[in-house]
Write a structure and sequence with these properties.
There is one protein chain. By secondary structure, this protein is of the alpha/beta class. The chain folds into two domains: 160 residues, Rossmann fold (3-Layer(aba) Sandwich); 115 residues, no CATH class. The chain is built from nine helices and nine strands. The strands form two sheets. A five-stranded parallel sheet has the order 2-3-1-4-5, with helices on both faces. A four-stranded parallel sheet has the order 7-8-6-9, with helices on one face. Strand 2, helix 2 and strand 3 form a beta-alpha-beta unit. The protein is globular. InterPro entries: P-loop_NTPase, RapZ-like, RapZ-like_N, RapZ_C. GO terms for molecular function: ATP binding; GTP binding; kinase activity.
Length: 298
């Protein structure tokens, strides 16, 4: 049986992810106390259930310390994957304000005894970050700060379609003007490269379009940047494998996340396609939503 454990920060999109998994045929449970997860998994497995998705968050704050041991134990018997959703504090405050929902760690007249009480929303968010921070290392992280719900659903679909064995290497393009992705393990700044944005014909296009590809391919500096970043990753990738890492995220940033970073992320993904399970994502470019490596146009 495959188990997807969804965790992370409240307001970061766990409900959207859980709904996407339900649509994909998973038996879904929200807000399950962690101590009951092994019993539930064994029962459903005995009943012939093949897919289980469980959301665990700060509503079970006093039980979160048990989760790392539970993950390790269940991984011995099941195909267990962890999806950790995160978002910037500013984005979370805006979402809670728009929905008028109460944060699980905010004061409430009818609160669960398993949840501590805090007064301000910002304080609650930061406290929750500390509570769940230890879970991020067990799985794949997604920063949903600037994501639309349909993009998150597409990324979750890509996540569950990946083969479980080996390390998954993700290249994510982004624009610095919208902030650095919170899920990045490495960040490379390519803003020093020639910018297609200043060509009025190229401005509305992206790094996947042939005119932009031709423009950037003609720049020696671009190839030097790709070679330098590629050499660094190739050197250290074996060390991450030896450390039993399941996911490694390499973020490539330019000003708007539409031209240079997209092109370079695609080039790097193509370069490492036969060396790891590769995903490429373009956070800020107005292009297709699937997370698979798209071939470079020639």
């Amino acid at each position: 049986m495959r188990i997807i454990l969804i965790t992370g920060i409240s307001g970061s999109g766990k409900s959207v992810a859980l709904n996407a998994l339900e649509d994909a045929g998973y038996y879904c449970v929200d807000n399950l106390p962690p101590r009951f997860l092994p019993e539930l998994a064994k029962y459903l497995d005995s009943q012939g259930q093949l897919r289980l998705a469980v959301a665990i968050d700060a509503r079970s704050s006093r039980s979160l310390d048990e989760v790392p041991a539970i993950i390790k134990d269940l991984s011995q018997a099941f195909d267990l994957r962890v999806l950790f959703l995160n978002a910037s504090t500013q984005s979370l405050i805006q979402r809670f304000s728009e929905t008028r929902r109460r944060h699980p760690l905010s004061g409430s007249p009818n609160h669960d005894a398993d949840v501590g009480l805090l007064t301000s929303l910002g304080e609650a968010i930061e406290s929750e970050r500390e509570l769940v921070s230890g879970l991020a290392e067990f799985g794949h992280q997604i920063d949903t700060s600037n994501l639309r719900a349909n993009v998150l659903r597409a990324w979750v679909k890509s996540f569950i379609e990946q083969e479980p064995a080996g390390l998954t290497l993700m290249f994510e393009s982004f624009g610095f003007k919208r902030g650095v992705p919170l899920d990045a393990d490495f960040v490379f700044d390519v803003r020093t490269l020639p910018n297609p944005y200043y060509d009025h014909e190229l401005r509305p296009l992206t790094g996947l379009d042939k005119p932009v590809i031709d423009f950037l391919s003609a720049q020696p500096m671009v190839h030097q940047m790709i070679d330098d970043v590629g050499t660094f990753i190739a050197k250290w990738l074996p060390q991450f494998r030896d450390d039993n890492r399941s996911y490694l995220t390499v973020a490539i940033g330019c000003t708007g996340g539409q031209h240079r970073s997209v092109f370079i992320a695609q080039a790097l993904a193509a370069r490492f396609g036969d060396k790891a399970n590769v995903i490429v994502r373009h956070r800020d470019a107005p292009i297709a939503l699937d997370g698979h490596v798209a071939p470079l146009q020639t």
